[in-house]
Each structure stands twice: as structure tokens, then as C-alpha cells.
Specification:
Number of domains: 2
Shape: elongated
Keywords: FAD, Flavoprotein, Oxidoreductase
GO molecular function: steroid dehydrogenase activity, acting on the CH-CH group of donors
Protein name: Fumarate reductase flavoprotein subunit
Helix content: 25-40%
CATH class of the largest domain: Alpha Beta
Distance between the termini: 16 Å
CATH superfamily of the largest domain: FAD/NAD(P)-binding domain
Strand content: 15-25%
Pfam families: FAD_binding_2
Number of strands: 20
Number of helices: 16
Domain FAD-dependent oxidoreductase 2 FAD-binding: 8-434
Largest sheet: 6 strands, mixed
CATH architecture of the largest domain: 3-Layer(bba) Sandwich
Amino acid sequence: MSAVEGPDLVVAGAGGGLVAALRAASLGLSVLVVERNEHFARGNNTAMSTAMVPGAGTRWQREAGVEDSPEQFLADVRAKTHGEADERLAAALAGVSARLLEWLADDVGLPLSLVTDFGYPGHSAYRCHTVPGRAGQAMLADVVRAVRSSDLVDLMVPARLTGVEEGDDGVLHAVVDTPNGEERIPTRAVLLATNGFGADRELVAEHLPEIAGATYHGSEGSTGDALRIGERLGAATAYLDAYQGHAALTPAATLAGWATVMHGAVVVDVAGRRFGDETTGYSEYAAALQAAEGGRGWIVLDERVHEACLSFTDYRDTVESGVTRTADDAAALAAAIEVDPEVLAATLEAARASAADGTPDEHGRTRWEAPLEAPYRAVPVTPALFHTQGGLVVDEHARVLRADGSAVPGLYASGGAAAGISGHGAAGYLAGNGLLPALGLAFLAAEHLAGH
């Protein structure tokens, strides 16, 4: 306990925010984590992710002979967002990414490895690191175990942070709603790690109209709490139109995954036609799928792609759900997914020809691992909103800022609670732009608090 007779740090949100709790505890600070969902270990956005955390200049990259640097990572962010990202924040996250990942492995015990079997759109080097099974729930489980073993971290569940106030004594108070009533907890600092506002339909309709009609596939607790708390304290907001979409959500609420596409699959609409370059990115392709004929479609792959994607828990869950259709040839596949056989055959032949000779197709796609070959598989997909990428403006230490650039005393934000590094809209999203700010800003906040 600190001189304020409360925890040094109150963390609101037991997803990526748990990294702040662990890092703060490792530096001798006491921490209270406040979480509204009793099933947080599997019900928040960190748990629902594919556990891909980008890092530039890590030991895993060196071992694999991958040349990378924070400067190269920053250049990729700049290119994907067309220069619209928060440069200072992107530089801070790229700069801390390797140290964060190595700390997670060495101090927290995460069994991390570098993904080298395929590259995500926009990353110029293999830099996504993950855990076995490539599932966020497995990653978060290891973090939760470390939290529960720490003598300096306490969990308050279920409980919801509803406000942050400065008391008459000048001490910061976290206002927490619990089953036993409201509590005011004195603390040195509060980290808002409650994600964004994807679960608030009104805010989504206001700020993200292009994706408002899509399925929301994220935590039910992402209702904009951090926005409201921060704005009451005079915090600035930015990039509220930014989000991560996904075009590979299945009717079974599983994720087919975009590794299918990067290994050579194509996406067709309900008429059997492709409607764009799938390799531009899964985030922006959600709106493209929503705008396509029928507002839904199919990922068409073959046995080679299927085998390559079995390393993903999400993909295996999709296959086991029974939504996948299989067929010996294009005509049988057309019958299975109820599209015109001539249209689908022409679509697959055009894609095969482009993949075989490496020339850009009519949509500009040039990235093909190999041509698709019969027999085929098809996975039904719908567009989805995964999480918002705009929020409270923070600096390189994760401190929440006012419009004049001054810091709100004692207030930090991470993950979807903070304005991220994806620029505007969905097209600037790079794989890991959700998890890196969630884990990285939490890490930076803990270190800043410990140093001050």
C-alpha cells in the first residue's frame, strides 16, 4: 500500500490491462484490478483475439534470421495508414515491442514464438509473435495465472469503474460499483483498460456508420466507459472513426481466419464472384464484404490451405463446427454453396491463372502462395466489427491528455480505451494493432508510474 492508504494503481479491465498489473507489481507497486465480467478469462477482446503481438527486433526474429527494427515497423504503420497514425504513439509502441515480448516470455512465462509460415498484410517482415494454438484465450490464461500468483495484485470481480475523482484531500479516488454498493478507493493512479465502444450501438452508429450494420464480435463490456470517464475529466479524444473489422466470421461465431487468404484462398459473394483484392487486409475487407452482393460470402480454399491453417485454434473450431462445405470440383462446389456454376468456375479459373503466372488480376491482387486446386472447401463468412480503434488521446507513457496537451493527473489509458495507431477508418489496421496497444500501453503506464 502507498501513502494514500490504497493501492498504487487501480486497473479497470482484466484483459490487456493485466500486463500493467504484473509490470507494476514487478516494480514493487501494489495493484487492484477492477473487472465487471466474472468470465473475463474468456470473455474480453484479448481472450477473443488470435494472440498475434507484433514486435520489432526480438530475439525470435534474430534466431530466425529476420531483419527488422522499430524504424521499419514504424514505416509500415505509416504506409498502411497513409501517414494518418499518431506518429509519437506508434514510435513508442514499435520501440517497446521487443522488450515487452521478451519480458512476457521471461518474467510472465508466455511460450512465445515467431510466426513465419505466412505474412500478414502490411507487415514487411515476419514480426507477429504468438502462443501455441494461436488463441488469445490461451495467452490470457497464462497472464491470469501470473496475476493470481502475485502478492501485490488483487482482483475485484465483479465490479465496474464508474468514475475517477480527486478528493478534498487531493488524493485520486477510483469510484467503483460493486454488488455491495459503491466504493471510493484512494490510489495514486488509474489505468483505463476497458476497451472501446464496440458494444454500444448508438456510439457505433454515430462514429462508424459504414460498419454499423455488421455483427459485433467482441466483449459485451466494451460500452465506452473509458470515453465517458475521460471526457468528464477533460480528456481529448481522437480517431473515433477507426476500427478493426473482420471479413471471416462464420455463422457458428467462429473465425475462419485471414491466414486462409494469405495462403491463397479467395473470397466470393453470394453470386460466386470475387469483388476485390483480399490481401489488402481483413479489417477493411469487412466493409467490402458488407457492400458486396448479399452482404455475405464464402472463403474458397483447397486442401493445401486447409492443412496450413490447422495451426490456428480458431480455424480448427470452424472446421469442427460443421459450417465448411467440401466438393470435388468447381461444379460440385457451386451446387454446395448455391451459386451459378459457370460464374464460380470462371472466378476460380481467373484466380488460378493469376496465381500461376504472377500477374495482377482484375482486382490488382498479386500475392498468391500457390494456385487453388480441386478438391475445394468453402467457409461461409459475414462481416464483423471486432473492436474500435479510437478513444482517449495518450502520450508515449500512456498518460491521458487534454486538448491543450497537458496530462490528466494520475490517469492512464491502454488498448481500445486509448486512441490507437491505425489512423482513420479500417484500412490502416495492421495485424496486432489491437493487442500491441493493449499490452504495450499497459506496460508503459506501469513503468511511468513506478518511475514517478
